[in-house]
Amino acid sequence: MHTFLDLSAEGIRLIDGGVQHLVLPRPATVIHKGQQVSGAYLVTRGQLRVFTYTPQGTEATLYFLRPGETCVLALNCLFNDLRYPAWVETAPGTEVAVIPGPLYRRLFESEAAVQNLTVQALSGLVFRLMGELEQLHACTLDQRLANFILSNATEEGVLQMTQQTLAGHLGTSREVIARLMQGFTAQGLVKTQRGTIAIVDSAQLSERAKPAATLS
Question: 175: buried, middle or exposed (CB in 10 Å: 19+, 13-18, 0-12)?
Fold first, then answer.
């Protein structure tokens, strides 16, 4: 794990002897709300999605964790003896290194690399959640959808995701997403196939992603 290349010799010995590797080839919910967290979760491959549920019963994504990142909510649970406040699911082909709680706390006391990782996780989460709150209060749903597509598409402008999954990320229904996607397609912003969205006009899609106050 390149994140811990700067560990001391003793830190490396402790990590090598205590870390647990999870290989998750298929999507699965690995943490449930209210669950006791066994350790710090460091993504080494793939992606974790942290989500909650709206009052209407639909899923709403809080943030994603990608390789090299760890979940600050899990760290908060470890340091404060709390239960996890959301749900976590894996993308296909995800691999996670789990550092047991007592070991992580021990490393945190003496290893600058672990202290830096913890601070980066906290600051990263704050910025992500602030961005989500800004979008939630300042953007319409079609603006949030445009932003989500732009932020999560590949370099080739392709997003492999069903409308049901999109609805889960944005906290709405598949029917609403289907209607918005029909509009995007009719305007020449994207093309859709089953489970795939391809960006056609990134400049105009970017304009759709802007909050109304910033539009000229």
Answer: exposed
- Alpha carbon distance, N-terminus to C-terminus of the chain: 46
Final residue belonging to a domain, choices 136, 157, 181? 136
- pLDDT, tens digit (0-9, with 9 covering 90-100), for 83-105: 999 999 999 999 999 999 999 99
pTM of the prediction? 0.63
- CATH code of 24's domain: 2.60.120.10
Structural domain including 14 reads 7-136
Identify whether residues 118 and 180 lie together within a single domain. no
Q: Is residue 21 part of a domain?
A: yes
